[in-house]
Write a structure and sequence with these properties.
The chain is mostly helical. It has one domain. α1 crosses α5, α2 runs antiparallel to α5 and α3 runs antiparallel to α4. The protein has 5 helices and no strands.
Length: 110
C-alpha cells in the first residue's frame, strides 16, 4: 500500500472538511478558544498528526473501519500547516460575520 500525503488529496475535499469544522466551531461559539488552540499547535502539526495517525487512529478501528479511515484523513489534512492556517482564517471569517449579524440585530431592535 502506497503512503498518502495531504498533497495527494482532492483540494475540494480538503476545503469541505475545513468548512465543516469551522462551521461546527462557530455554531458552538468556541471561535476564540479554537483559534488559540490551533495557533499554539501549528508548529507541531506534523509531529502531532504522525502521533495521531500511528497511535490514535487505530483505536477508532475498534468503533469501525470507516471511523478509523475518517480519523486518518483528518490527521492527514492537518499535518500541513497551511491547512491549519486556512481553518483559523475561516473560523475568524465566520466569527466576524456572526459579530456583524449580532450588531445588526442590536441596531434593528432599537
Amino acid at each position: 500500500m502506497e503512503a498518502m500525503y495531504a498533497s495527494d488529496l482532492d483540494p475540494k475535499l480538503v476545503e469541505e472538511i475545513i468548512e465543516k469544522i469551522a462551521r461546527a466551531v462557530s455554531r458552538a461559539g468556541m471561535e476564540m478558544p479554537a483559534i488559540l488552540l490551533l495557533s499554539s499547535i501549528t508548529p507541531l502539526s506534523w509531529v502531532g498528526s504522525q502521533f495521531g495517525r500511528a497511535l490514535v487512529a487505530p483505536l477508532f478501528g475498534l468503533i469501525s473501519w470507516d471511523t478509523m479511515n475518517k480519523a486518518d484523513l483528518y490527521f492527514m489534512i492537518f499535518e500541513e500547516r497551511g491547512n491549519i492556517r486556512r481553518l483559523i482564517k475561516r473560523i475568524e471569517e465566520l466569527a466576524e460575520a456572526s459579530d456583524q449579524q449580532k450588531e445588526k440585530g442590536k441596531t434593528d431592535g432599537k
